[in-house]
Amino acid sequence: MSTTASAPPRKRTRKTYDAATDGDEQRPTGLSVFVQLVRDEEFWYEDGTIDLVAGNVIFRVYKGVLAEHSAVFKDMFSLPQPPSESSSSQCPVVYLSDSPEDLRHVLRVLMPRNDVSPFSPYDPSFNMISATIRLGNKYEMPRLVEHSVHYLKKWFPGNLSTWVNNKNPLPPGFRELDAIGVIHLARFLDEESILPSAFLTCCFTECDILRGREREDGTLEQLTLNDVGICLGTRTRLIQEIFRFVLEVYKGPPSTRCSSPELCRNGLSNALEVLGKYFVGAPPWRTNPFNDVAPIIRDMTQKSELCNRCRSMVRARETDRLRVLWARMPELMGP
What we know:
The protein is built from 13 helices and 6 strands. It has helices at 63-69, 71-77, 100-110, 126-138, 142-155, 160-166, 178-189, 195-203, 225-250, 261-281, 289-303, 308-327, 329-332, and strands at 38-44, 50-54, 57-61, 93-96, 213-214, 220-221. Strands 1-3-2-4 form a 4-stranded mixed sheet. α4 (126-138) runs parallel beside α7 and α11 runs antiparallel to α12 (308-327). The longest helix is centred in the C-terminal third of the chain and has 26 residues, at 225-250.
């Protein structure tokens, strides 16, 4: 990373994020110095001590706050900084390669304009979580990355109970196609536990995963060809598993402690027939075994003509089969 002054050799090697533009900071040269810079409306402090330029936007903030949270900024500010060319102020300026949108997200966390945490009580967007993870990693802000990853893991968990308790497969501030970005972040972070639920969301979305998700700057973030293959293959295998799942739950004799064997035998058979017809006609994005199928089975079990013991047997089977299927997700995501 360099500013207008010649920078010393890099002291650290930082992992970069392939799905987003991420390069060294440098001062514009030639005609680009005449690009009209616009003051950021949200982060412009008249008594600020450093100017950060991202794209064509200039942010005036406090050097000490940035240095306190970021080892990279601390090292950078130890070098002589040139004055800003955008105003008569002698405030030092640093040119960054980040987008103004990403930088603004990070500054909202580091320099909140009120006492409310950016992650609570309102729900952060994927763009905020993505920016805080990528820039937090780039500028060595470990606590910021830690909080953001914790939020991702809460909503894209590695265990079934947390997934079911969330009741919604997406964080409130996320859109379905944001799962594409979550997959990229999981790979960037080497957080394998996030991948099954992120792929699950991509597998059963009605949206066009091939087109990708639109970033704040209008560019598209897309799955790699390998991940597209994983997504499509996983969905095909999961749909096959759904039929096996339903058969294992409802096929077979009533409970050994059944109080009405004939009635319950007919009830199980009727439930199996109704569910079979539903899945044959259901669109692929409505066949997620954990978010669509399981609730339908529970509702069907409740409404079916079954004695209490058979109803409990079916519920236990459903819970057990779901756990097995969740545990097999890494296998189902394989080639």
